[in-house]
Amino acid sequence: MATSIKTLRDQLVAQGNQVYIFTTTDPHAKDVDEEQGIYRFHSVPFVSFSDRRIAFAGWLKVLRLAKKLDLDIVHNQTEFSLGVMGKMVARELDIPCLHTYHTMYQDYLHYIANGHVLKPKDVARLAHLYLKNMDGIIAPSERVYTTLKSYGVTSPMRIIPTGVNLDVYGHEDSPEQTHALRQRFGYDEDTPVLLSLSRLAFEKNIHALIEAMPDILAKDSRAQLLIVGDGPAKESLERQVKEMQLGDHIQFAGEVPNNQVYHYYQMANVFVSASDSESQGLTYDEALASDLPIVVMQSPYTDELIDDPAIGISFQRRAELVQGVLRYIENPPSPEDSAKRQAKLHDISAEVFGHRVVDFYEDCQARHERQSTGHRRLFHRKKA
């Protein structure tokens, strides 16, 4: 979500727009950064997600600031307190309110009292209630769109996948840079490196990648799995690696700054993911932009993205995961494969993403204005 917001902000600014971000307080950041247009509001750690925060006050401050900044559109990126405040601000200022639905909450219910408090039907009811009367909803993928439709959401909705900055991920590291990063983890130039890059959460299913490693090693004993990221499942995954005695073939790189992530894609031979909870799969697009083949769990998004083995392979069973990985280890991508991947990049570029969002903004503004004018006319008639 943070990557999506940053990408959108950068693209909107590049198109000449002024963007302000209202978010929660952060112990490591100042509350106001006017140069960056960032304003923070008092918050506390969220239940079961201590590294995530939720604002608990500031409605009047939010409204005063919104009026002062003379906003034209409110674009919410959270369904919690700041999202509710965003809806209230838009209503007070009579401006459009849009929302991007990032998270498939039914995949995360186990974090709250082991799933005993909230059920999928509760998610559907709450999402329907929150999204009611939105001027526009952005679904990052077909899966999100279909899910919201099944919830009975009727607000105008458009599928707009988050784009990838091709200038960053399309940048090719020098052989010296790649060698230095490989050397840091003890990899030789010809060591096949499988890259997993995500938050280390249980729903990312990283344990399935670890379970598949013995089968991969039986065919190629040189293979290495590098797990990049941090999160609540880290200790469990480290314990699994130790119990399976795979310490010589699996390493944890920890969390990597976002502006350094592209180096890891450049260094690897194949990107792997067994996650079945992706609303879009932004890392898949980043790997593609980095000219890296992907082997990932099948989903509606991968059905759309992967239309040629040059791009990657999706799997449902462990044997298919192993087979896909070995295919790319044994047959490095050819120039023809790279050309096919490049042909996919236009549709997933950050620039196209930004233009699609702005087009939706304009449609929502026009619709909001027509509806507001209609309401005002109706009001005057009744008053008369």
UniProtKB/TrEMBL annotation:
Pfam annotation, one family: Glyco_transf_4
Glycosyl transferase family domain sequence ranges: 181-341
Residue span(s) of domain Glycosyltransferase subfamily 4-like N-terminal: 2-167
Gene Ontology MF: a single term: hexosyltransferase activity
Entry keywords, A to Z: Transferase
Taxonomic superkingdom: Bacteria
InterPro entries: Glyco_trans_1 (IPR001296), Glyco_trans_4-like_N (IPR028098), Glycosyltransferase_grp1 (IPR050194)
PANTHER family cross-referenced by the UniProt entry: SULFOQUINOVOSYL TRANSFERASE SQD2
Protein's name according to its UniProt entry: Glycosyltransferase
Organism of origin: Limosilactobacillus secaliphilus
Highest classification ranks of the organism: Bacteria, Bacillati, Bacillota, Bacilli, Lactobacillales
